[in-house]
Structures are given as C-alpha cells and as structure tokens.
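Attaching the record inline, Q. Sequence:
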Amino acid sequence: MSTRPVGTPTRGTTNPNRLRRMDRWIAAAHGPALRRAARPLAVDLGYGSAPWTTLELLRRLRTADPRCEVVGIEIDPARVAAAKPYAVEGLSFRHGGFELPVPEPPLLIRAANVLRQYEEGEVAAVWARLCGRLAPGGLLVEGTCDEIGRRHVWVALGPEGPRTVTFATRLGSLDRPSDLAERLPKALIHRNVPGEPVHAFLRDFDRAWAAAAPYASLGARQRWMRAVRELGRDWPLRDGPKRWRQGEVTVEWAALAPSNE
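Structure, as predicted:
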C-alpha cells in the first residue's frame, strides 16, 4: 500500500550556489564522520523546483569523502520527474517527505528553506522525526538563507537534538550582524524580541561589531574576526578563526534556545 508523503510542498525557489555556505560548513564539520562511515549517505530534503543545489551538495560532500551518495527528496512528484534526468552515479531523486524514503538511515540530512512555511509550534516535532531517522553519528542541518545565499542561519542537530546555531554571511554585504535576523530558522525567528537569548546575542554581536569599527580599514573580514573574538568572551562559541574567516560563527544551541525550553 502506498503511503502519502508527510509534509507540504515548499515554494520551490532555488538558485545555483545558493547553499554554498551551508555546504562548505557541512563538509568541514561533518567530514570526519562521513569518512568513518561504511556508506556515507546524505539526504537533500525539499530541494525545490530544480535540482541544482542537490548536485552541488554531492560535489561538495565528495571533497570530504569521494564515496558520498546523495538522495534528493521532494514532495512534489513533478519536481522529482524534472530532476531525474540529472541523476548520476551516487545521486538519485525520490518522491517523499519527512518520512524519508531511503533504504537505510542517512548520515546527513540537509533541509534548507523547508520549515520556513511551517508554524513555530510544528518545528520540534519535525526535528524529532528527522533526527529519529539519522544513523548513529548523523547530522541534521536545518536553516534558511536569502535567494542568492549571501545570508544564512542554520541549526545543526544530532540524534539527541539541537547542538549549535551557525550564522554565515558574505561580509561585503553586511551592514551589521543583526541583519542576519531576517534569516533565522523558524524555531528562532519569532524569538528575536527583548528577553529572548537570540535577541541578546544579536544585540551583543552588533555592539562588538561597532567596537571593531577601527578594524574596517583592514577589511570587513578583519572587522568580523575582531567582533567575533570579542563576542566569544560572553557567548559559548564552538569554532575558531579558520571558520570565522569564512564569514561564519557557530554558537551552542543551549545559549540561544527559546526561553521557554
């Protein structure tokens, strides 16, 4: 008996290279786990109306491990049919949703710009369902970016739940760090109000950015790195200068989690 896919279709908006920041972080942060796996299987959930970002995910994961396989999953059967001509060895496309119709638990699930249309109260159940499908040592990366990938925020989750939040941006387009607030994932975007941890984090980030203004003469990257270093005095950051140089900063989820958790 066929089972109806779980979830609702996204708008389908997609552009080549849109998810490059997320993909580079995944390859760096999750590469060792991919290399240890007997079969490094990844899922691109809700890839949209065209498969460009799924093809790019395969290419970027294979810089970490050439054995990586990717399955693109879409709830809209027309999108799956349109993507199938792009299938190659190690890359396939399937009709489905949050139930993840793959032959074995994946080591990675990427869900970019999928939960934006859902209610905040629905996010925890989706996270739990997807995390429950992960292989041991697996990773779920769920987040939101703008149309051309200049600004991106994502949550990384393991089988036990959320671990970190990463903010990533094209530094030349940034006026101040709180500009990234518009790309917060659904679990946090409505929490950017006084009294909530994510609001305090972005407030402190803006203050550190302002204090680092003298470094702007050395370039936006140096100013960002100085601001992040200062931010790390009060917030539990999980990365270092190598990632900061990419226009990234990762903070522990527990520090930004909604105040009612």
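The two ends are 39 Å apart (CA to CA). The longest strand covers residues 161-169.

More tomorrow.
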